[in-house]
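Thread title: Can someone regenerate the structure for this chain?

I was given the following input by a collaborator and told the matching structure tokens would be attached. They weren't. Posting the sequence so someone can regenerate them.
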Amino acid sequence: TRLDACRDDPAMDANLPARIYRQLASRTQDGDDSGLRAKFRDQPLVYLADRPTGRQWVSSKDCVWGDARELFGEAFGYLKTAYPKLKDFFVETLGVKVNVDAESYAHRWLQLQDEPPPADGSRRQSVVKLYGELRRALDMQPRPQWLREFFQKAKSYTQSDTFKNPACVVVPDDGNLKRLFDGEVAFAWRPEHDAFADWQPLYKALEVRRLSECVHAELDSQTEAGHVPKDECFLTPECVQMIASWLREKERAVFD
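Best answer:
Regenerated them for you:
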């Protein structure tokens, strides 16, 4: 085809693909698509001049209409800027997605967890958007297969800007316990100004446990029975504070 020839020609006129797409769009308006959707899906026939050299030709399944470059980088080809007048051809005729969908966000999460964090700290901005999209995806009924597969592979994002196995991460739902174990365990992250409870459905799907569920306390007395010194203090100020905090949360009447 003419597009195949263009792809193989290093001296190709950069405006030629657009002219070919317009001709194809005109034909499909007359009802003749000649299997175009399958051809564009299976072969790299979409030209994008703004992509890096060697990656300027992509298939339609690797494209979206809207620009999501800020979050997805070059994971997709973005057509709106390159071909603003050909939306019907790419979206209606070739089946290109108008925007990235929930599955795309899940795929991006899996990419991020295997990438080293950028020095500028920009990964956290991406995670904010991913959190929101994945929480909305949890409301899908029934849950799609891709979502179940995602949570089998996904790691949990932490406050140290790292991704870790969910079994090694806890949700710091108790301030006193968080201070006690700070530096000892990895804490799950949440967007600024949100409560951890707002994101509990996502933590639960990732199988991240709450810190308050992982801690139990018992009195460890090394003094033999019958020989407890009467002037010995067993309750430190910190212990009193933790007991008071527990009473305030669980037994308010007793606390008051």
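The CA atoms of residues 137 and 144 lie 9 Å apart.
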